[in-house]
Amino acid sequence: MRELAVQALSSVERGYDLLAPKFDHTPFRTPDVVLDATAAALRPLGPFGQALDVCCGTGASMRILRPLCQGRITGVDFSAGMLAQAGRAHPDAEWVQADVRALPFADGFDLAVSFGALGHFLPAERPALFAGVHRALRPGGLFAFPIGAPPPIASGMYWALLGFDLAMRVRNAVWRPPFVMYYGTCPLHAVRDDLTAAGFAVTTVPLTALGLREDGSPRCRLVLARRT
């Protein structure tokens, strides 16, 4: 708890640098079940050539990208600590430190993925992020990422996430540097609009392996944004 408190009172970059050595043993790492469901949805659309993991962290997605891709796999993140862990675990991939709101790539990738990172960007920052991914992809390239359905308002999870977001807003109002991490700022309809504005053709597929809500709708969808 002490370590998490120190990380939460740091910047996003510094916080992840501190968390990096233990990140793969925390609940913050993308669960394997989410990675496997994503791989199953992408497999019929491949094989792909070169791939980019946006906000790659410690490189958890390498396990599913290797079988899907025939070319180079690159991870990009702005935390040097996370990239150091990724490089040790996956020395055969390429790791680039950069701010993903200004990605340093152009027309080089057939597939881009991202897992659990959208909450680190304010809504006003998403257009730059998506424009950079669009620029990094070759024409016809695919940007894929899972996005969860909002929990029902009567559920405990809804109020827990709302409470977390409110606590983060208070923290960022009174403490510097800010730590941007919100769960309620990236609903599917807003993300779809931003992707479309960036030049993507957007569809979604349900990740039914991750379960259904009480109304029968999927708990999670895979967004498929193709550079047109």
TrEMBL record:
InterPro entries reported for this sequence: Methyltransf_25, SAM-dependent_MTases_sf
Keywords, comma-separated and alphabetical: Methyltransferase, Transferase
Protein name as it appears in the record: Methyltransferase domain-containing protein
Pfam families given in the database record: Methyltransf_25
GO biological process, one term: methylation
Organism expressing this protein natively: Nonomuraea solani
Lineage: superkingdom: Bacteria
Keyword Methyltransferase: yes
Residues covered by the Methyltransferase domain: 52-141
MF annotations from Gene Ontology: methyltransferase activity
